[in-house]
Amino acid sequence: MISVAEALAHLFALAKPLDTEVVPLKHAGGRVLAQDASARRDQPPFSASAMDGYAVRDKDVKPGAVLTMIGESAAGHRFDGKISAGECTRIFTGAPLPKGADRIVIQEDVIVNGNQITIGDNLDSNHYVRAKGFDFRDGQSIAAPKKLRPSDIALLAAMNVPEVSVTRKPKVAILSTGDELVMPGETPNDDQIIASNSFGLYAMLQDLGADPRLLPIARDSEESLRTAFELANDVDLLLTIGGASVGDHDLVGKVAADLGMARAFYKIAMRPGKPLMAGRLKSGAMMIGLPGNPVSAMVCGKVFVEPVIRAMLGLGTSPAPEFTAPLAAEITANGPREHYMRAQLTDGQVTVFDRQDSALLSVLADANILVIRPPNDPARKTGEVMRCITI
Ligand SMILES: Nc1nc2c(c(=O)[nH]1)N[C@H]1C(S)=C(S)[C@@H](COP(=O)(O)OP(=O)(O)OC[C@H]3O[C@@H](n4cnc5c(N)ncnc54)[C@H](O)[C@@H]3O)O[C@H]1N2
Ligand code: MOO
């Protein structure tokens, strides 16, 4: 059995960044920017008022001073003239600052009488002017690679960038295997259960910005598995679930090998997740064979599939980000496999759940972190600091 770190290194060797495509901005949220995007103008493109009030010359501003209004500057409609000594214009938020003006006095600070204003006694020192290029300059860029958040999309729009180059979404097929499985909503017989982790992985992949597809459940026969593998000829990654262990009906490894899969590894010193396998299929796609136990598949999704998808998206090769936090209660020694334990982080303290069987999805749903225990980690006392990842 290889270590988790060795398995990740194998996976990163298989997962190459995908090609790119150009998409309109409204479809770019959550995608990964593949080429730097540069502003096509200054923002604001002119010195602009930050408030509703009066555009004035700073040197004319004194409590009690009377200024004559010679026009108006509104957003989208600048005042074309020039302000001279003793003059001002009405101005609104976002409007271009007229020539000659270098300050806004807000309307709350003046008394208006016809076309004259009198400056009040309680002025603040703020000029309320946003200089040309105050937000960003023409040519300023957002550096790739970057997963585009809503705030990035707003910035790109302001930069007058209508479309961006992004990494293609990885196409991922999810294949559940087993005679015992039916789809949610179907009527199982007495010996059957509902396929679950396939749906959890589908949601995880959607969140990551991949393009997942659920294949029909394959039965525990070589023929059914072969047919299902063929349905995944066009994908970047095939995730199989179950049939990975040593039982008589665990046929995934054999069928994959028969179909020409070049295996990178099988079995890792990890709990849950021991029978994980990976390799390259004849089609060129990557395959990751996940263990069937629901929690094992989901934990392997977090620890292996998520970094693989990030690598395919061009976001680099790094494991799930870790942090540390102290234990709220003691825990017993770990066994020989690196253990990813379901736990709850509350008020900065970690409570590791007692029940860690890899069939317990309810315990996974109650957890908000996984605590990582190295092989043979000794018993740990309250307050000891543990490595954790968010789930
Ligand atoms: N003699 C041994 N037995 C087992 C070993 C071992 O080393 N020696 N390893 C155990 C470990 S650890 C794991 S993990 C499991 C993994 O086995 P498989 O990957 O072959 O998975 P299955 O046997 O097909 O299924 C296990 C379990 O999970 C349920 N399952 C499968 N797919 C789904 C799905 N899509 N949704 C929900 N539940 C699913 C399945 O019904 C089984 O209950 O092997 C141990 N055995
Ligand atoms: O390695 Mo298995 O995934 O413990 O249940």
UniProtKB/TrEMBL annotation:
CDD domains: MoeA (cd00887). Belongs to the MoeA family. GO terms for molecular function: metal ion binding; molybdopterin molybdotransferase activity. Keywords: Magnesium, Metal-binding, Molybdenum, Molybdenum cofactor biosynthesis, Transferase. The keyword Metal-binding applies. It catalyses: adenylyl-molybdopterin + molybdate = Mo-molybdopterin + AMP + H(+). GO terms for biological process: Mo-molybdopterin cofactor biosynthetic process. The gene is moeA_2. Its cofactor is Mg(2+). This is Molybdopterin molybdenumtransferase.
